[in-house]
Amino acid sequence: MRSTMAIVAALVWGLLGAAGPVAAETTVTVRDVAGREVTLVTPVKRILLGEGRQFLALALLHPDPESLLAAWSGDMRRQDKVLYQQYLAKFPGLGRVPLVSTGSPDTFSVEQALAAAPEVAILSGGFGPSQRSDDVVRKLESAGVPVVFIDFVEQPLRNTVPSIRLLGQLLGREARAEEFIGFYQSHMDRITNRLAAAKPALPNVLMHAHAGHQDCCNSPGRATIGAFVDVAGGHNIATDVLKRPVGHLSREYVISRNPDVYVGTGGMHLEALGGLVMGPGVDAARSRRLLASVVSKPGLAGLSAVRNGRVHGIWHLFNNMPLNVLAVEAMAKWFHPELFADVDPDASLRELNERFLPVPMQGTFWVSVDDVGARSR
């Protein structure tokens, strides 16, 4: 009898061991990027993701991020189809995860969200409910669903690291979060510390958002992707006149400022609009050709940046994901090529693919009109 019990015990122990260590559930109080203290049980196993694109942030930290989703927004499926298909191939269950919106705050359904029985709602603004969505937050919390906010878009330089650290707490993946933060912070510090020591003259930069979609020029100030211009060592000419985070610069203003560097943002969302197409699965030659076409238009063709070949494109989605350090590295090289001659965003992307991303980023994420500046992975 004792022998039989010992065998059973050994089998049970072996099965538990094979499954790996299981994190004990703990009630914790966390502080989100909105400064709210939220008490919940971790590690969370059923997540309502208010913005589908933030699945990539989960994927950085968790080996099976698909298993965590109780429901999510449809923005990644609808607007970033190539990226979605790449992740769907790796995580087939994504296609069965219930949708709570088509990818905009006004289509978000609290009823569908509650029907999915999430343990936590992770909201981030952008294409889903934001910190200003008081009614959504109240209804979720009244139904017993804790709400936490992360942010990679409104104030990315301030909130990327605390957002990743918060996700690490929620998922019980603190060590993995700190590993990514170490990578992110070391690469960001290399740029900021070198600029602080060298104090180079700052080139005037025109950042043309959604380049080619409309006449010149929709531009961000120091919000969203525009925040990366300052930290990369440039002066964003939009910040001198815009009263809002994003706005329109007249052709006359752009010509009068005659920027030293042009940076257009592009993505797959511009494919049907005649704009700068960039992103997963896109060939660099195609993006380079479209970029050259954009700056050949009236109001841009005569700019100093265009005449001197300092014309570049950046993937617009860097404005809403924790991989934004890649955009900072690319811009730093464009703005100060000699100072950052040893900085290689291609190498940084390879390291991210090898160490952190379950689906390697492959495509064109930064590009220049000249062959030397073109980058594709």
TrEMBL record:
PANTHER family registered for this protein in UniProt: MOLYBDATE-BINDING PROTEIN MOLA, VITAMIN B12-BINDING PROTEIN
Signal peptide residue numbers: 1-24
UniProt-listed Gene3D superfamilies: Nitrogenase molybdenum iron protein domain
Name of this chain's protein: Periplasmic binding protein
Pfam families for this protein: Peripla_BP_2
Stretches assigned to the Fe/B12 periplasmic-binding domain: 46-343
Keywords per UniProt: Signal
Keyword Signal: yes
Keyword Signal attributed: yes
Organism superkingdom: Bacteria
